Amino acid sequence: MVKAIGKTKKTPGIEVIDIEEPALGPEDVLVRVKATAICGTDLHYYHWDAYAERHNPGLPRVLGHEFCGDVIKIGENVKTLHPGDRVSGETHIPCKSCIFCRTGKMHICKDMKIFGVDTIYGSFAPYTALPEVTAVKIPDEIPYEVGAVLEPLGVAVHAVSEAQIRPGDFVVVMGCGPIGVYAQQLAKLAGASKIISTDVKDYRLNLSRKAGVGEAINVLRSDPVARVMELTNGVGADVVIEVSGANSAIKQALDSVKRTGRIVLVGTAHKPTEVDTTNYLIYKEIKMSGITGRLMFDTWYQSIKIAVNKLIDLGVVTTHRFELDDAEEAFSLIDKGEGGKVVFLP
User: Is 65 a catalytic residue?
Assistant: First the structure.
């Protein structure tokens, strides 16, 4: 039996539980987890909402999907990994046989399963098991805590790549969680001349300011659209990356982007957003697209190079570190918006 963070019942809260070590399948690798981070997705299980009800493979279960560790054992059919390899986890578990997997789009597999979401065993434990295809080998020079955030970094890399930021672009990033702060730094790296970040939490806005890439606006106190228009002489932003998932932010993105500008949607809204397609998409010729997760595995190669060469400050969002026993305190911090990336060290 091992100690882990997870759920034994369909009720709000988080539990520290004793559970059997994960079983190793023929195409799996067993990993000694060295660092694992809380994601906003994990909060669905903390509150046990409709998302948790939909994605519940059974109880008891171990949560967590952002992690880094060392391979200690491999299944009999594993070919590309060996004991001692340092790995980070790609959370998308593709079927490898649908039309999307077979045409280079594994990240939107028709029968996608998510590690730590659609599986009984996640990463909030000393050991975890996952398919070979989703265990990404990384250089030993990448620290475990950095390896644990390569998954959310990859989302930001995917978003900024999709945005096609050009040198000199005026960029707005809506949302200052870890992915948002990474996206802000990556936009600067891509050549943005001015970056505005927005959020409703001062704590997260301060993380953006600490990253030092632009102006941070609390939308509860200031109008971000008015500020963007002021700074662009009424033209609007070249690019808006929406990470918060707030319906109001999506409307602000449409209002603040310039004619022919580009909007990339990353955050998942809790309810549908009504969009005036005629006045925004047609008359303004806005290019709007959405991204999910990371490209498998192009985004990973980019993220690893960013981490190895320390092109951005990946540690700026890591604000707290906890033992597994402190699960309630750790989740409470994230739930109240008083933490950036919170990491468990099993």
Answer: no
- Check whether the bond before 322 is cis (ω within 30° of 0): no
User: What's the pTM value of the predicted model, to 2 decimals?
Assistant: 0.96
Task: Choose, from 8, 11, 44, 134, the residue flagged as catalytic.
Answer: 44
Residue 252's contacts (CB-CB under 8 Å, 6 or more residues apart) are 174, 198, 219, 224, 225
Per-residue pLDDT tens digits for 36-47: 999 999 999 999
Domains of the chain: 2-148+313-344 (3.90.180.10), 155-290 (3.40.50.720)
- Phi, psi angle pair for 251, to nearest 5°: -65, -40
Residue 260 pLDDT level (bands cut at 50, 70, 90): very high
Count CA within 13 A, CB hemisphere, residue 126.
9
Tell me the C-alpha distance between 308 and 93, whole Å.
Answer: 25
* Alpha-carbon dihedral sign for residues 152, 58, 337, 173: positive
pLDDT of residue 270: 84
Among candidate residues 8, 11, 36, 41, the one labeled active-site is 41
- Indicate if 44 belongs to the active site: yes
